[in-house]
Structure formats: C-alpha cells, structure tokens
Amino acid sequence: IKNNPKIFLGLSDITALHIAFNQKCDLVTYHGPVGRRFVDMDEYTKESVFKNITTDSEIIFENPKCEEIFTLYEGKCEGEIVGGNLSLINTSLGTEYEIDTKDKILFIEETSEYVYNVDKMINHLHMAGKFEDCKGIIFGDFDNCRKVRDEDWSVEDIINEIAQRYKKPTIYNLQSGHCVPVGTIPLGAM
Question: For the domain 9-187, what is the CATH superfamily, name and number?
Fold first, then answer.
C-alpha cells in the first residue's frame, strides 16, 4: 500500500484501516461516505468528496448551511488530523495500530450507541492520554446516540466536560460521520 498509494475513502469500521494506513504507510486517507452512498448522493456530500480528492490546495471545511459548528473551547491550533469512529479508535488502544494523537488534531464521531457507552469510550481515551497528547479536538456527528434515562448526561455534556478539562481548541457538530449529508475530512493531512 505504501508503495502503491491510492485514494482510500470511507468511515465507521474503516477507521481501523485509516489509522493503519496513516501511521504505517504515511498515506492521507479520507473520512467520508462509503460506496453505497454514491448511488443517490446529495450535492453537499458529492462536492465535499471531490473537493478533497482532486486538489492539493488548502480546503476550508464548511458544514451544510442548516448545521452550525459549535465552539466548546476557543483557540487556534495546527496539526495533522487523525481519528474517525470512536468505537474503532478505542479498539486500536493497546495494539501496534494504536492511534497516535501526539501534536495532532483528534477527530471523533459515533453512531447508534447509548450515551453511557460514549461516556466510557471518551473516558478510555482520556485515561490513555489521547486528549492530553493532542493539540485540538473535533467532535463530529453523534448520530442516533441515545440516553437510557432522561436524567442521564447528553453527548454534549460529556464532550463539553472534555473541552473544559483540557482547554484545547475544541469544536462540535462538524457534519462528518454517519449523517446525511456527510462532509469528507482528509485524515493524515494538516
């Protein structure tokens, strides 16, 4: 793969391959729609994919017009973007493919998890030093992540606690993940 680089695009379980290709092959990969979404792709998603894979120029990521990006902790940072699906990032811990967040911007998204599981996985990253090591945090889409009880913390409560604890530039609701439309993010790129 390192000797024959190709465009690699996908999300969710593909996160395991993103991490491996970024770290072992020095390959920029793209966190974006999977093949089945290409059948009836909306204009935003299509534009985001092709803007990423056809240019060497700087790309400015913008959410769809109806989706706001929220700042959880203000600031500026620069670094390589790494990450993907929270469950798969956690699965990499303790293996030779463990995600390296040192001086990088950590991107996290998730789908169809109970919020208490999101809390456990975020805490695992915290205890593994991944938030300590990174320069900034991007929380993407957390599609269909639901509470068990009304009084439980929300995903927003959990990630806001991380932002306030680490005091690093942190944003939330970047529309990349299991959402529609979905924006493409170049992993392994500055």
Answer: LD-carboxypeptidase A C-terminal domain-like (3.50.30.60)
The first and second tokens of residue 74, run together, are 């203000």
Select from 181, 124, 128 the least CA-distant residue to 158. 124
CA dist 115 and 49 (Å) reads: 29
Q: In what side-by-side order are the strands of the sheet with 185-187?
A: 9-10, 29-31, 185-187
Q: Which residues are annotated as catalytic?
A: 12, 109, 178
Q: Which residues pair with 73 in a beta bridge?
A: 170
| For the chain, percent of residues with pLDDT exceeding 70 | 99
| R_g of the chain, CA atoms, integer Å | 16
Sign of CA dihedral 27, 136, 158, 68: negative
Spans of all domains in the chain: 9-187
pLDDT tens figures, 92-131: 999 999 999 999 999 999 999 999 999 999 999 999 999 9
d(C-alpha 29, C-alpha 25), whole Å: 10
Q: How far apart are CA 116 and CA 173, in angstroms?
A: 19
Query: pLDDT per residue over 67-94, tens digit each?
Result: 999 999 999 999 999 999 999 999 999 9
Beta carbons within 8 Å of 4's beta carbon, 6+ residues apart: none
Q: Do 159 and 56 meet the contact criterion of CB atoms below 8 Å apart?
A: no
